[in-house]
Protein: Histidine--tRNA ligase
Organism: Isoptericola haloaureus
Amino acid sequence: MARVTPLSGFPEWLPDGRVVEQHVLDVLRRTFELHGFAGIETRAVEPLDQLLRKGETSKEVYVLRRLQEEGDDVAVGDGGARSEKQLGLHFDLTVPFARYVLENAGRLAFPFKRYQIQKVWRGERPQEGRFREFVQADIDVVGAGDLPYHYEVELPLVMAEALGALREVGLPPVRVLVNNRKVAEGFYRGLGLGDVEGVLRQIDKLDKIGVEKVAELLVAEQGATPEQAAACLDLAAIHGSDTTVVDDVRKLAARYDAGTDLLETGLAELGALIEAAGARAPGVVVADLKIARGLDYYTGSVYETVLVGHEQLGSICSGGRYDTLASDGKNTYPGVGLSVGVSRLVSRVLSAGLMTATRGVPTAVLVAVTDEDSRAASDAVAAALRSRGVPTDVAPTAAKFGKQIKVADRRGIPFVWFPGEEHQVKDIRSGEQVAVDPATWTPPAEDLHPRVVAGE
Amino acid sequence: MARVTPLSGFPEWLPDGRVVEQHVLDVLRRTFELHGFAGIETRAVEPLDQLLRKGETSKEVYVLRRLQEEGDDVAVGDGGARSEKQLGLHFDLTVPFARYVLENAGRLAFPFKRYQIQKVWRGERPQEGRFREFVQADIDVVGAGDLPYHYEVELPLVMAEALGALREVGLPPVRVLVNNRKVAEGFYRGLGLGDVEGVLRQIDKLDKIGVEKVAELLVAEQGATPEQAAACLDLAAIHGSDTTVVDDVRKLAARYDAGTDLLETGLAELGALIEAAGARAPGVVVADLKIARGLDYYTGSVYETVLVGHEQLGSICSGGRYDTLASDGKNTYPGVGLSVGVSRLVSRVLSAGLMTATRGVPTAVLVAVTDEDSRAASDAVAAALRSRGVPTDVAPTAAKFGKQIKVADRRGIPFVWFPGEEHQVKDIRSGEQVAVDPATWTPPAEDLHPRVVAGE
């Protein structure tokens, strides 16, 4: 094991980076639980045929093979028989959640609200913000048969609250961009464009290739007239954080005589979302009519989220409403959900120095050891501190006290305890040293655990 | 996705089972942090050649292949070039930790104490207590160049404390069985048996095939005389929770004239461990001279842990001391560590009903909705409760109140809140309903979060 090099696309953090990631995960979990989401965890593998149902990502799947079945490409499954299903690593948490819902439908209460924080894998070419292994934190609400619209309003607000709770430790503000598939589809159909997905696919290229190229493609590939293409681009240009957006779309539809019932339904939904968001999280949610997001399976609201000042990182939290999360032939399960790209977020936060940990160890106190024969006395002090919830370590060796202080200093441990007839504690940052009682002393609350603080 | 069947060997829990598992993980994490272990997480994959260094488990490895590289058995790696390394899923957390230490040696402070709670994968045939995907919770201390013996005493005690902290929620007591490789090796060499690993391999079969068959094998396979075989079996029969064990071994060695310096070193270490454990965790640690545990790479203390009353489940927490966790040619990193088989533990605890969750949702309060037009008023009550840390949900629909109470009842949510001129809260277990102030009311502390309690 002489040469060790990192694997591109498989991020790992040093202990102080992990403190930051763990804090992010703890804040997300706490917020999700405050909103009544139950935590679940699913296995990392799914049958390959289930993973390939979403055509788009099929090429990214990691397929598993048991080593003893070397050379046998078919038999990767339960027991190794050739008839067994091939397994792959999940590439998101939606496919496994849908399977979990079907598998346990009779034992779940609907609407079922769950959060899920796990790693996912995609065999993509690694690049900044794109990993082969990364952590996602998902919330979804799924109904049996139907799911009220109000969840489409609530879920992005839960995410805005969760990400907003990280602002005090240095996360930049987020902006949640919302759209509604019914608006786009209703408008395109009103215009006379039937290939809604085709049009959306072109609109999705706006950020990459610009307005003129998209206009050309709409004409060349979707058979739009120049006027229809212009209308689509006018719609995509509409954005704003209040309900004037709805009026703007209505005016545009009137100008092109493109009004439809579906458009009106979509506008009512989008308007309700913007209005509620404006009241509950002012300035966070913005309607952006060019957001497209895999609209082939989303059927209502769609969401993307950018870090203000880091927009080029792409969306850090995306999702939407789907009428058919899962179906078992008898029942259909509609849902709405969003997924935070935790690794993408944490990677940026660490590389840009936006958040730092006050230390990389949980330890608040290092108990010095006078000599190895009295190690038991130091252990006893440590046990007393731990019994009061103080993370405590004991010096590795009975070296000179100066060396033991260095052990604490290298790790960022703020206090060193010297046992003896009279116990003393030294704050190694200030140098202050005072006599203390092992039965009662605790460090100040702000030093008890490593904290995550905003970078410079 | 019409037919959904569970995959054997890939355990998943319903939400109330996950509450139990999460509690176990939270208690482990808290205990590890109290003892100064830093949390890290490593990627799920390692280069295949690294995974295969431990010969014994090589057949269990899951190898990864990117789907678009179908038919190309070699190229599973970074970018797909044929020269890239094949990757496999890690089968434990020790191999990845060793690699992490080498990769980051210059940026870690030694002795480095870390905990790591992650899934691992083994392509074994599934059976009770053996999974293909399972969660492990590991602690290790690793030194650069050397590592003091006292860590071999401390680490099993940390695990005993962590598992002991779960007794109040229904975990049976644990018994940590300890041995020391130097004792066995010193004794066998003193007897004149040179193939220490061979002897240990036979001794390891005691529980499966019994004393007589092992005696036969020691003679037939290891070339022992009947007297040497009897001596080995006498050693393996020694066990006890105080230092008389050390005396027993010394007497045995004198009887066979099998004393060696290595044996004395091992006995001193084992005695120190038993003594310290007797003082710090009375009755938990038992010396058991037949514990062998992959002694091909352990070099000092070895540990196994059984749940009292569930011994046939096998060890739920194992580990030991290894002089060479990792080596980069220049430096050697000795370590000592233990690993809790969390999935094995949780699976048993759930199937035997030893622990149950008071509810499967985090939600303490369900706010009823009088009619959809006043949903915002219910949302406001929920926001006020959440701001005080009360997990709160709002009813999915403005159904009749009786139906909304059923929504809470099905989920085990203890309180339903009725907003209005006068706000009221009903404890649906007792039926008691009282007028409350949304600005101040909180549920009793014991109802705030789901709790894990001992089963019947």
